[in-house]
Specification:
The protein is of the alpha/beta class. It is built from 13 helices and 18 strands. The strands form four sheets. Strands 3-4-2-1-7-11-12-10 form an eight-stranded mixed beta sheet, with helices on both faces. The chain has a six-stranded antiparallel beta sheet with strand order 14-15-13-16-18-17. Strand 3 (140-142), helix 7 (162-178) and strand 4 (182-186) form a beta-alpha-beta unit. The longest helix has 22 residues, at 58-79. The chain starts with a strand and ends with a strand. The chain binds aspartic acid and magnesium ion.
C-alpha cells in the first residue's frame, strides 16, 4: 500500500488533471490512497471570500465565490461526459453549503468561518478528480476525509485526534483497499466531533498524507511536485543548484530548520517514526528519478545552500556591562514568545547577545522597545543570512567570499554568515 499526494499545481487545469490520471495508470498493481489539494490557487481565492464575508461585504463574497464555482464547473465540463451530471450535482451541494453561510451575517470568530469556507477547495478538487478517474475507467472511491480525520476545534491550526482517526482509517479505508479500490481523498482538512470543518494550517496536505501513510503502515509516501527533485539550493536564487537524489530524514529536518523550503518537519516526523520512505517526484516527467528521503545516512552531499534575505541583526548589550546570564536569556526567550519572534541566528558573548530575525518590522520594533528597558539595543536591517551545510572551500569562496560579514559561525557541518 502506498500513499500519493498531488499538490494544487498538479491539478490546476483540465490538462493537469488528465496528467494525474496518466501518472496513476503507470501503477495498476499498486494499492493507493491518493491525497489531493485544492486546484491551483483556489485556497488563496477562498481566503478572499472568507475575508469579504467576515467584513460583511456579502455581495463581494458571493461574487468571488462565483468565480471559483465557474472555474471548477468549467474544468469538470471539459473533462467529463458520462459522469458530468453526477459530478455537477456533487459540486453544487458543496457550493450550496458555502452560499447558505455567506447569506447569514457572521456571529462567531473569523477562524471558524475561514475553515468552513476554505475547506471546500479540497472537496471540489477531489470530487472532480475522482469522477474523472472513473471516466477513464480507473476504479476509485471518493472519500470525505472529514469522516476520518477528527480534530479539536482549534480552527485554522487544528490538532488531530490520533486514536479516533486511526480507528476510522482502519474501519473505512482498509476495507476499500482490500476491495482493490483506490481511495481519492483530501489533505489539509478535518472535522470536529460536532461536524464542523477544520483546517490544519496552510500547506497542510503533505502532513495529512504523511499521517495517512503512518496510520496505514504504508510502504511509502510519494509527493508529486512540479520540481525535478529536492535541490541543493533554491534554483531561483542559484541557477546551478544540483538535484539531490537521496537524503536522510534528519538532513531534511536540518535543511528546513535553516530555512530551506523543502518538506516541512511536521511531515517528516510521522514518516520517520515508522521508517516510511518519502519520495519526491516530478508530475511533469514521472520518469525523472526525483528524491528519496529515508533513514539512510546521506552520503556525498553537495554543499547545500540556504539564503535568507531581508534579515535584521539585533545586538543587545547589558547597560551596566555586567555579564549576560541565564536570567537575561530566559527573559529574552519569553519576550520572543510573546512577540512570536523566532531568531534565525543566535550568538552569545560575555556582555552582549546577537540575534538575527526575518524582518517583521512591527514585531521587531515592539520587541526592541521591550528589550530597551534592560539592554542597549542596536538594530541593523538589510542583511542576508547564508547557511552552507556540508561546506567546502569552493562554496565558501563562491557564496560568502568577498561579502562584508558581520557574524560568522562555523561547525563541522555548517557554515553560517550574516552579511551585507
Ligand atoms: N490547499 C491548501 C493550501 O494551499 C493545503 C495544501 O495545498 O497543502 O495551503
Ligand atoms: Mg499545496
Amino acid at each position: 500500500m502506498k500513499v500519493y499526494k498531488f499538490g494544487g499545481a498538479s491539478v490546476n487545469s483540465a490538462e493537469r488533471v488528465s496528467n494525474v490520471a496518466t501518472i496513476l495508470e503507470r501503477f495498476p498493481d499498486d494499492d493507493l490512497v491518493i491525497v489531493i489539494s485544492a486546484m491551483g490557487k483556489t485556497t488563496n481565492a477562498l481566503e478572499k471570500v472568507a475575508h469579504a464575508y467576515y467584513e460583511e461585504k456579502k455581495e463581494e463574497a458571493l461574487g468571488l465565490f462565483d468565480e471559483i464555482k465557474k472555474q471548477h464547473l468549467t474544468i469538470a465540463k471539459y473533462l467529463l461526459v458520462t459522469h458530468y451530471l453526477a459530478c455537477e450535482a456533487r459540486l453544487k451541494d458543496f457550493f450550496t453549503e458555502v452560499e447558505w453561510m455567506l447569506h447569514d451575517a457572521p456571529v462567531r470568530e473569523f477562524d471558524y468561518y475561514y475553515d468552513q469556507i476554505v475547506s471546500v477547495g479540497e472537496l471540489l478538487a477531489t470530487c472532480i478528480v475522482s469522477f474523472y478517474l472513473s471516466e477513464r475507467g480507473i476504479r476509485n472511491q471518493w472519500m470525505d476525509v472529514r469522516d476520518i480525520f477528527r480534530t479539536d476545534d482549534n480552527f485554522r491550526d487544528a490538532n488531530i485526534n490520533w486514536e479516533f482517526t486511526q480507528q476510522q482509517v482502519d474501519r473505512q479505508i482498509l476495507p476499500l483497499i482490500k476491495e482493490k479500490k483506490w481511495v481519492v481523498t483530501q489533505g489539509f482538512i478535518g472535522a470536529t466531533d460536532e461536524n464542523e470543518s477544520t483546517t490544519l494550517g496552510r500547506e497542510g496536505s503533505d502532513y495529512s498524507a504523511a499521517l495517512f501513510a503512518s496510520m496505514l503502515h504504508a510502504e511509502s509516501l510519494t509527493i508529486w511536485k512540479d520540481v525535478e527533485s529536492v535541490m541543493s539550493a533554491d534554483p531561483k536564487m542559484i541557477p546551478d543548484a544540483l538535484p539531490i537524489h537521496s537524503l536522510s530524514y534528519n538532513e531534511v529536518i536540518e535543511m528546513a530548520y535553516y530555512g530551506a523550503q523543502v518538506i516541512h518537519p511536521k511531515t517528516i516526523k510521522p514518516l520517520q517514526n515508522k521508517n516510511i520512505p518519502l519520495y519526491v517526484k516530478c508530475f511533469l516527467d514521472a520518469d525523472l528519478p526525483g528524491t528519496v528521503i529515508h533513514d539512510n545516512i546521506s552520503k556525498d552531499l553537495p554543499p547545500i545552500i540556504v539564503i535568507k534575505e531581508n534579515q535584521v541583526m539585533m545586538e543587545l548589550k547589558t547597560k551596566d556591562f555586567s555579564f549576560v546570564g541565564d536570567a537575561h536569556a530566559y527573559q529574552l526567550y519569553q519576550w520572543f514568545n510573546e512577540h512570536s519572534l523566532r531568531p534565525t541566528l543566535t550568538q552569545n558573548g560575555a556582555i552582549s547577545l546577537i540575534f538575527a530575525f526575518d524582518n517583521w518590522e512591527e514585531k521587531i520594533s515592539r520587541f526592541s522597545s521591550a528589550a530597551a528597558e534592560v539592554f542597549d539595543v542596536h538594530v541593523t536591517p538589510g542583511l542576508t543570512l547564508t547557511t552552507i551545510r556540508h561546506y567546502n572551500k569552493n562554496a565558501l569562496d563562491q557564496y560568502v567570499g568577498e561579502k562584508e560579514v558581520l557574524v560568522k559561525q562555523q561547525t563541522l557541518k555548517n557554515f553560517r554568515a550574516l552579511h551585507r
